[in-house]
Amino acid sequence: MRLYSSLSRQIEEVKPLDGQTVKIYSCGPTVYRYIHIGNFRSFMLGDLIRRILRFEGQDSRLVMNITDVGHMTDDLRDTGLDKMELAQSDEGLSAMQIAEKYTEAFLKDGDAVGIGRADLYPRATEHIPEMIEITKRLVEKGHAYVVDGTVYFEVRTFPDYGKLSGNTLEALQAGHRQDVEVDPNKRSREDFGLWKKAGAHRVLKWPSPWGDGFPGWHIECSAMSMKHLGERFDVHTGGNDNKFPHHEDEIAQSEAAVGHSVVSVWVHGGFLRLSGQKIAKSAKNVVLVPEIVERGLDPLAFRLVCFGTRYRSEMDFSWEAFEAANTRLTGLRQRMADWSESPAVATRGEMAEDLDRRFRDAVADDMDMPAALVVLNEAVSSPAVGPAEKYRLLSSWDGVLGLDLERLARERYEAPPEVLELIRRRDEARAARDFGTADRIRDQLGAMGLEVMDTPAGTRVRPRL
User: What's the rounded Cα separation, in Å, for the pair 213 and 198?
Assistant: First the structure.
């Protein structure tokens, strides 16, 4: 698999540093409100990379953080109010209740749009000791300084600052607005907070060597990614809006702390726009997943809409396009249901082999999903490919597409109680990461003449063609 790296600005092959597992870290949500579809386009990236890697037999591990403290209302200056405490005052719930409410909503909505759950969702509030440890290390190495209980990263001590976003120290100095108030405790405007002193009325705070305080937003991802994936890992994803300051600051503090590069490939997704504007709460144009359902549309059709535009490009959203994608998805599922009743074939024909090769090439080529959809359309309409072959192709490709193309075909097969019990036991084993038991049950179902499929909703089976 090859991906465009925002850091090197070129296509790079994804190779596991440990020779076995591709380790992926995705910047996750700040859980103080419902997540809109613009965010979900970015959150789709990590899972899509994982789907493609597994499609080609490459083991992978996906970690996505949950930010439940430290993300301030002013991203650029990392100042203002903590978004969690702001939501707390708005809703009259505790910060923990706010986090639980919106984390559950995020996971539920992610399921609806076919984003497979990460292997781990670490929470910022559960990693305060790791954040303090990295901050201490940066102070000891001379990359950070303490002023009245707040710890700042000194950008001038990291010569490579700006290598991701292009916002070098010189560019920042030239572009500074003179009317923006600067924290007088900083040695330079560009410095950013690693640990912040808690004010008198601050609710979310923890003890530290510098007094009671709370972490900065950027240090959270450094601490969580390196704790769970190691000091060197393969892929880091996020939206284009994460490049600066969040990811730029993350690179500076992580590399300054450990003394070497941490991430091999940085992957960033383009904005989703509605009527020419970026979908964002500030623009008052957000679209939430429940609204899709209220309109009688399948949330999985959102994937089909997104796949029509290369992930790195900005994408225009319209309900007309969504409705067309919904109609297309329903038609594909009906075709699959019809093809599922065709007699099986022993071997795959030459045209089917060529289509499969082209699909695999497309998704491996920096996730070229528009090209993959062209191949899918050719497969559906090709007279040279039989119905059973078409079913097998699309069923296989759906491991990447995540469109639940076999939904109607599945509904025509009513699993007996003994099969349902095996499915239940296998899902429990997978949830407990007991993959040995899950594989044995897969073999048992296979011996019963069933094809076994792993989907975001769990194990699915159908008679083998």
Answer: 4
pLDDT score recorded for residue 63? 98
The two tokens of residue 127 are 């990693």
- Residue showing tokens 């912040």: 196
- What is the Cα–Cα distance from 295 to 301, expressed in whole angstroms? 12
Q: Which of 261, 190, 189, 262 is nearest to 227 (CA)?
A: 262
CATH number of the 14-273 domain: 3.40.50.620
In sequence order, what are the beta bridge partners of 214?
196
Alpha-carbon span 262 to 310, nearest angstrom: 27
Q: If you search the block for the tokens 């994408």, which residue do you land on?
A: 315
CB 463 within 8 A of CB 448: no
Q: Cα(140)–Cα(159) distance, rounded to whole angstroms?
A: 18
**Cis before 387 (ω within 30):** no
312: tokens are 């790195």
Separation of CA 259 from chain center:
27
Query: pLDDT for 291-318, tens place per residue?
Result: 999 999 999 999 999 999 999 999 999 9
